[in-house]
Amino acid sequence: MYELVFWNYKEGIYLNNHLVYEAIAKEQSVDGLEELPTTVIVNRINSLFSKWERVDENSWKNNNGPGAFHVRTTSQSIKIDCYGTEGKTMDILVEALEEFKCPLYDPQVPERFDGVE
To answer: Is 25 left (phi over 0), alpha (psi -120 to 50) or beta?
Structure first.
């Protein structure tokens, strides 16, 4: 499994990304994060992956190639668990979340790709 994690900081706030990730993994609320339009985001993902089988409300499976993913949401975050998913597919997910001003945090690296050093 490969994890993709997304959130947006409130204006003027920047926290330890790894600690934010750990809180999100436990589905805890984090002071300093924006509320996200999670239903709109999941609908956007669904529209981008309309040719994939929607296994349940938050899971998609590619019946014509490798990959599946599951989306977990809190009011402040989106966490996508990818299973055998190709890099180009993960790029589509990352670009979709960028539309909502939510840069990728990759816990495997660990790095948040938001341009902040």
So the answer is: alpha
Whether the CB-CB separation of 32 and 9 falls below 8 Å is answered with yes
pLDDT band at 115 (very low <50, low <70, confident <90, very high): confident
Tens of pLDDT, residue by residue over 40-82, are 999 999 999 999 999 999 999 999 999 999 999 999 999 999 9
Greatest CA separation for the chain: 44
> In Å, how far are 38, 63, 64 from 97, measured between CA atoms?
10, 24, 24
Beta bridge partner(s), residue 69: 60, 82
Q: How far apart are CA 105 and CA 7, in angstroms?
A: 8
Q: By the 8 A CB rule, do 46 and 54 touch?
A: yes
Cis ω for the linkage preceding 110 (within 30 of 0): yes
Find all residues with CB under 8 Å of 6, minimum gap 6, and list them: 77, 78, 79, 80, 97, 100, 102, 103, 104, 105
